[in-house]
């Protein structure tokens, strides 16, 4: 059998597989439709998206995957399959921090797949309002993205909004070296956000060792300066490059390929446990020394890991600071529930922002 | 059986289906790997992407699809499946007209799926150069996109490049009404590209009947003007809104929801017939009256439909115009071959830019 016959045979087998896959995908869509009908008949609402169920399915897909497709690729395909099936019954509307083409849009599509409708909005409070009003099913907002400067608005909104956190998304971020000049050798000053400088240190030491590094408020600000000054460079995104008309002297210069940023999915529905969850809360108490230590004790006593702590000046006069805390586990888990009950007694202010599945892919 | 038990049962069936689907997807990936090995053993090159084969598969998927998933959704899923399988063996690098977040990036991902690597470049000639040099497998460039002004650069490159057209992509485009003002009633002048004004005429007649409509060179230029003048609006993309700091007074105002723009995939490989193809060519002849009529006769004589004709000033002194022509059919189809042979005798200059599958999804 020659190569061409062999190829024919393999292709015929692929074609046969494709028919089977297509049949199963339509069967799956039919079952998703049945799920929706059962729920609607039971008065369980029209929104059939269940964050905990999707997370469970994706985790199982990754766990049982023998290859050759990687677990990540397989999970990505299943995300799209679930997105297409869900769209048959409940075409989800997702509001996100726009414009089109931002990292937040990419995060929204990564989390919900490409079969949703999306609405880019220009301010974080608008996203909260749309979801509160029910004109969008979910919103996607940046929360740990120290180079884009949008985080604090998100945290501040949680102080006043009744919405819950329904999920988190992690996204890889790339940094580029941008300049008006055309060669690295012409660059003597470098602007970037402090954290970005840190994230690219190895590359900078190897390629721009003699160059002065000047931390500025944001990478967008760095790009703006590099657009005004000759002999300068900035570390920023490709988007900033276009807006300020700069050249990319080098791309993807971050030291860790795993440089990620984090987004939150907000909605009006509480999410039941998925088996691997996080819980976010807001905490405050009267301004005195040792407050935070006291507040954290119930977590430690119950062996609950904290994955993140951030403090923000409070908008209420009574306290000076509000703490945003992420812990491992679901608020229905016995240990977490115990810790939260104790915290509630000790803190002047405790607001549960939601329990949600840990990011899967 | 109560609702919750019914739900449990349906979910168990979905889980069982998912396992089968996952197994078949991995089998498919394994076969794709075998295809690559057979080809490499036979010295058929390392690039396993076959535009005609992908188009055939997608057309068959759409033709045999009984639902409930729509043919378009099903084809989209298969595009991603093929993308993931191909990436196992040949991780494709796709150069496109950047920056990230443009319509051209969306077109590249729609055509190649999300398992490819992409490289945004800032000029169309750079994309041709990268593909010619082999550092990118394919390039994606806009070709019929009268509102973004990049078309002519693409056509001019085809005059001098040895690359072939390997595919076409169609993409839906949305228009928004942008302004510095906050209400429609404050707007008395409207800027947009002539063609955009035409595409939004019904909406404008209904909502901005008394407003002066001023055609400008591009929608980006329209947005720039609306950013400088009060009482003005522009029709442009969400991206332009951000760059010029405008408000969206209304979104998706195009009359036809099918408002599409077209992109070409360029590469160094000729594509064999897929069964539903187009052929693009460049034609020129000595400057005399009736030239175009004479040039088009061989097409008419052979009953070949022309889907597009565009004339461009030639860069060579000998002729005044070069014609870019798209026809239905593959250059290996007997009728097309006959017409092309006749054309070659009559024209001073004939360049075949490639035969490629008509856009499927």
Automatic annotation (TrEMBL), chains A, B:
What pathway is it annotated to? Amino-acid biosynthesis; L-phenylalanine biosynthesis; phenylpyruvate from prephenate: step 1/1; Metabolic intermediate biosynthesis; prephenate biosynthesis; prephenate from chorismate: step 1/1
- One GO-annotated biological process of the protein: chorismate metabolic process
Q: Where is the ACT domain?
A: 280-357
Where is the site labelled Essential for prephenate dehydratase activity? Answer: 261
Q: Does the keyword Isomerase apply?
A: yes
In short, the EC number is 4.2.1.51, 5.4.99.5
The record's Gene Ontology cellular component field reads: cytoplasm
Q: Which residues form the Chorismate mutase domain?
A: 1-93
Report the main location listed first in the record: cytoplasm
Q: Which NCBIfam families match?
A: CM_P2, PRK11898.1
Question: What name does the UniProt record give this protein?
Answer: Bifunctional chorismate mutase/prephenate dehydratase
Organism expressing this protein natively: Nitrosococcus wardiae
